[in-house]
Design goal:
There is one protein chain. With 317 residues, the chain is α/β, with parallel strands linked by helices. It has one domain: Ribonuclease Z/Hydroxyacylglutathione hydrolase-like (Metallo-beta-lactamase, Chain A). Helices cover 27% and strands 19% of the residues. The strands form three sheets. A seven-stranded mixed sheet has the order 7-8-11-12-13-14-15. A six-stranded mixed sheet has the order 1-2-3-4-5-6. The longest helix is centred in the first third of the chain and has 18 residues. It is globular and about 55 Å long.
């Protein structure tokens, strides 16, 4: 089985896009990536915009390999409207008629219109597909964070490779998980690898410390009960102090970010947005230049003296 995070917050963009190969099955999961337009009063920085361009290219490239696309819910970092991404493929997406409301329901309708007849769109809840020794199963609706979350529900995808004895669970925006129901469900799946969003500690003042700690405790419980590895990313790395905040998780040696799972240097750019703008606005460093040659004396011709225009200083954009 191959599990490849394509875009993630630890790679510079809001995303959990992932590609999975198991047996003869090739799945593209949550193929979206976005930048938040306002973080601390600042728009996306140039490095973030470049990271988004690269993320979109990776997602498009791996879409060409996939036969199945899975969409866990309708927050815009988890899918893309581009019909070419889904053309000729089966799409398992959250049923917009089941525990979906508000803006997510409208986005689901917009996506359906964008796809038209170019893709086979199916409600994903409870889906099951068996291809040789590979089994794909979709959960029922799970809370997006705490039980009763106003953010609605998400679906999880379980991919089992019987030949390798590996079981991958993609649990999207369960935020830890915060919900004890989701923690119990994850333990029942007996995964070898779980990919989920961490608790939103960057919003701790709004949601409260107890819920953040509950998400950490539940993640530790899943690891202890199953011995699985966990990719924890997305909400969990938007806090500039996420390393210190989630020290209990990193210390297990079983929990990593998406960047660490790939073996690359992490780039949680949104958490560093203010710092990135400070860097972008610094004046360019002085360049060492050879001393100017002394000009030759001009002929003795009288001409009016005009002052040189003063050079204007400024900051590079």
């Amino acid at each position: 089985m191959r599990v490849i995070p394509l875009a993630a917050d630890s790679l510079g963009v809001r995303s959990m896009a992932t590609y999975v190969e198991a047996g003869g099955v090739r799945v593209l999961i949550d193929p979206g990536a976005v930048l938040t337009q306002n973080r601390g009063g600042l728009p996306p920085s140039p490095p973030e915009r470049e990271a988004l361009r690269r993320a979109d290219d990776r997602i498009s490239g791996y879409a060409a390999r996939a036969g199945l696309v899975f969409i866990s819910h309708y927050h815009e970092e988890h899918f893309r409207y581009d019909p070419g991404l889904y053309a000729g493929r089966t799409v398992w997406a959250k049923d917009p008629g089941r525990q979906v409301g508000g803006a997510q329901r409208q986005r689901a309708a917009d996506l359906r219109r964008a796809l038209g007849a170019g893709a086979r769109l199916e409600g994903a809840e409870g889906r099951r597909l068996e291809v040789g020794e590979t089994l794909l199963e979709v959960s029922g609706p799970l809370p997006h964070g705490e039980d009763g979350s106003p953010l609605g529900h998400v679906l999880a995808l379980v991919v089992t490779d019987r030949l390798e004895g590996r079981r991958f669970v993609f649990a999207s925006d369960v935020q830890g998980p915060m919900s004890p129901v989701v923690a119990a469900w994850l333990i029942r799946q007996r995964p070898s690898l779980v990919y989920l969003s961490g608790p939103p500690s960057y919003l701790e003042r709004e949601v409260g410390r107890p819920l953040i700690e509950q998400g950490v405790d539940h993640c530790l419980a899943v690891v202890a009960a199953t011995g699985c590895r966990v990719i924890m990313d997305h909400y969990g790395v938007r806090d500039p102090r996420y390393r210190e905040r989630f020290a209990r998780l990193w210390q297990t040696g079983r929990v990593v970010t998406a960047a660490e799972f790939l073996g690359v240097t992490g780039a949680p750019l949104e958490a560093r947005r203010r710092e990135l703008w400070v860097e972008a606005r610094k004046p360019p460093a002085a360049v060492d230049r050879p001393p100017a040659l002394k000009p030759a004396p001009e002929p003795a011709i009288m001409r009016p003296r005009t002052p040189f225009a003063k050079r204007r200083g400024g900051r590079s954009a």
